[in-house]
Hints:
- Belongs to the UPF0758 family.
- By secondary structure, the protein is α+β, with helices and mostly antiparallel strands.
- The chain is built from ten helices and five strands; from the N terminus they run ααααααααββαβαββ.
- A five-stranded mixed beta sheet has the order 2-1-3-4-5, sandwiched between helices.
- The relative contact order is 0.08.
Amino acid sequence: MRHGSENKKAEQEAHKAKTTIKDWAEDDRPREKLLAKGAKALSTAELLAILIGSGTADKSAVELMRDIMHSCNDSLKTLGQYSLEQLCAFKGIGPAKAVTIMAAVELGLRRLEEFDTEDITRICSSNDIYRLMRHEMLDLQHEEFWCIMLNNAGKVIGKELISRGGITQTTVDVRLILRAAIMSRASAIILCHNHPSGNKKPSNDDIRLTSDIKSASKLMNIKTLDHLVITPSGYYSFADEGLL
Length: 244
């Protein structure tokens, strides 16, 4: 009897793998599980399975997403760094499903950004800057340079991407920074760029560029308050380190 029961279970598992979520046993349906127990009761793989909708002939959507999450050590942070090509390398994931996964991760980041920045009415410290900008940069595999514009009260009135570069550097035109500041009628600016390598220490080029921007903005009566180097593990503040 036991042998027969095991065979039946194996047949059920094989059948389940070939079906979509709608055809699974009720206990195995992520949608129904979410409705019955709430979103927090679902694993990350189950939540993502709801979004992609179906798996392959060999694997259910949940099993497929478990494989993907396993490949990134169950880290949504790492998943967010996957490119379209990397996601499409998994059997059963085409461009449409890959885009859906990327959109889901981005929505999660934007929700977290709202929580992180909702109490920042004005910039008072380097940590305020980091909280404001880290979501723009944490998953990037290339360097980006941003300028934050502030009014007299220290309130952020705008932020602008100045340049986008390669893995190790990006070229920054000081005139573009001044233009962004003047167009927004800023009284002060804060500079930010990321180091995908994870090295928080600014390079000699970073230090020289910061000095050039500070001198140029001073001629326009615009203060340069700080320059943050942002990495996945934290940040380096020029102001905190006495370099401004």
